[in-house]
Specification:
Blueprint lengths: L2 E7 L3 E11 L7 E12 L6 H4 L4 H20 L2 E8 L1 H5 L3 H12 L3 E3 L2 H13 L10 E6 L4 E7 L2 E8 L3 H8 L7 H17 L1 H10 L21 E5 L1 H11 L6 H4 L3 E3 H13 L2 H4 L13 H14 L4 E5 L3 H10 L7
Helix pairs in contact: 2-4, 5-14, 6-7, 6-13, 7-13, 9-13, 11-13
Length: 340
C-alpha cells in the first residue's frame, strides 16, 4: 500500500502521522489507517501571539525547522504525498504569509491554512475513526489546543454542529499566570476568564444539549463509561486531555494504546489542577506522564477541561488519542477522495 503523511501545525504543538490506508475489516465501515510513525512536538508557534498579533521570528524559525524535520522523516519512510494544515495561530497571525513562504522554500511543502469549520470537520472525522459505537450514538467531542477550543457534535459520518471558542492553553497561560508557581489570585483570575469565555458561548454550547436530544438517552463505551444526561458521549481529544490521561496513569513512556479510552472524572482533573498549581515549573517537568515542554501550560489546560465538563453538565470524559491529523489523512488519501 502507498505511504502518506499528514502534519497538523497547531498553536502549541506540531503533529505528524505517517502510514497507509486500506478498507476497514468490516464491510461498509470505511477505511482504516495503518500507522507507521507518529510524532508530537511542542513547538509554541503562538508564543506571544496574543500580545502582538504576530508570529515571532524565533517561533517561525523553530516551527519551520521542525516542519522540515518531519517532512524529511516522512519522505525517508517513502511518503508519496504529505498533507499539511495550519490552524488557529496561522489563521490569526498578521504575518502568517512569512511562515508559508519559508515552509515552501525550506521544506518544499504547501501549508494550507484551514478555517475553523474545516478544522472541526477534520477533527471530528479523526476522532470517530478511533471510537467504537453504534451508528446512532451521539458524540460531543472537544479539543483544547494552544489558541482555541473546538466543539463538535454528531454521529458517525455526520457532523451536526461545530464551533470554536478563542480559549487556548497558550493564550490563557500568557495572560494570567505570571509567577512560578502561580499566585492564588492569578489562578482565580484564570478560572474566571475561562468561565466567562464559555458563558459568552452559551447559546452555542447549549446546542450540544439540544442537538443530542434525538440521540439515545444513554450509551456505554467499551470501558463502561456512560453518556451524559444530555444523551451524548463526551470525548476529549488533543494534547491537553491525552496529557491529563498520561499523568493519571503515571506513564514514563507514552503509549497511545493505553491512553485511548481512558476515563477522566472531575476528581482527577481537579487533583491535577492542585498538583500543577502547587509546584514550580522545574518540578512540574518531573511529573511522570507530563512532557516537560508542556509543563508550563498544563494548569491552564486542566482548568479549561474542568470548566468544559462543568458547563456541559458531565461528570467525566473519554480520552481519544486521535485527532485532526487522522481526519486529514483520511480526507486526503482515502480512495475516492480525489486527492493523490
Amino acid at each position: 500500500m502507498p505511504t502518506y503523511a499528514a502534519i497538523d501545525i497547531g498553536t502549541n504543538s506540531m503533529k505528524l502521522l505517517v502510514g497507509s490506508i486500506e478498507p476497514a475489516a468490516s464491510e461498509g465501515s470505511g477505511y482504516t489507517i495503518t500507522t507507521m510513525a507518529e510524532e508530537l512536538v511542542v513547538t509554541r508557534l503562538g508564543e506571544g501571539l496574543a500580545a502582538t498579533g504576530r508570529l515571532s521570528p524565533e517561533a517561525i524559525d523553530r516551527n519551520v525547522s521542525q516542519l522540515a524535520a518531519m517532512a524529511e522523516k516522512a519522505r525517508a519512510m517513502g511518503a508519496a504525498a504529505i498533507a499539511v494544515v495550519g490552524t488557529m495561530a496561522l489563521r490569526e497571525a498578521a504575518n502568517a504569509d512569512t511562515f508559508l513562504r519559508l515552509a515552501r522554500s525550506r521544506c518544499q511543502l504547501e501549508v494550507e491554512i484551514i478555517s475553523g469549520e474545516e478544522e472541526g470537520r477534520l477533527a471530528f472525522l479523526g476522532a470517530l475513526s478511533g471510537l467504537h459505537a453504534t451508528a446512532d450514538t451521539v458524540f460531543c467531542v472537544f479539543d483544547t489546543g494552544g489558541g482555541s477550543t473546538e466543539f463538535m457534535l454528531g454521529e458517525a459520518g455526520r457532523l451536526r454542529e461545530h464551533f470554536s471558542i478563542t480559549l487556548g492553553v497558550r493564550e490563557m497561560t500568557e495572560r494570567y499566570l505570571h509567577h512560578d508557581p502561580p499566585l492564588p489570585e492569578e489562578i482565580r483570575a484564570l478560572q474566571g476568564a475561562i468561565v466567562k469565555r464559555l458563558a459568552d458561548a452559551g447559546d452555542r454550547i447549549a446546542v450540544c444539549h439540544e442537538g443530542s436530544a434525538a440521540g439515545p438517552d444513554a450509551s456505554t463505551d467499551r470501558n463502561g463509561a456512560s453518556s451524559s444526561a444530555g444523551g451524548f458521549r463526551l470525548v476529549g481529544m488533543g494534547g491537553t486531555v491525552t496529557t491529563l490521561a498520561a499523568v493519571r496513569r503515571g506513564m514514563k513512556h507514552y503509549d497511545p494504546r493505553v491512553i485511548a479510552g481512558t476515563i477522566l472524572d472531575r476528581r482527577e482533573i481537579h487533583r491535577q489542577m492542585q498538583l500543577y498549581s502547587s509546584l514550580p515549573l522545574s518540578r512540574r517537568k518531573e511529573i511522570d506522564g507530563l512532557e516537560p515542554d508542556r509543563a508550563d501550560v498544563m494548569l491552564a489546560g486542566a482548568a479549561i477541561v474542568a470548566a468544559v465538563i462543568d458547563r456541559l453538565g458531565c461528570d467525566e470524559l473519554e480520552v481519544n488519542d486521535r485527532g485532526l491529523r487522522h481526519g486529514l489523512f483520511l480526507d486526503r488519501f482515502a480512495p475516492g477522495s480525489g486527492r493523490p
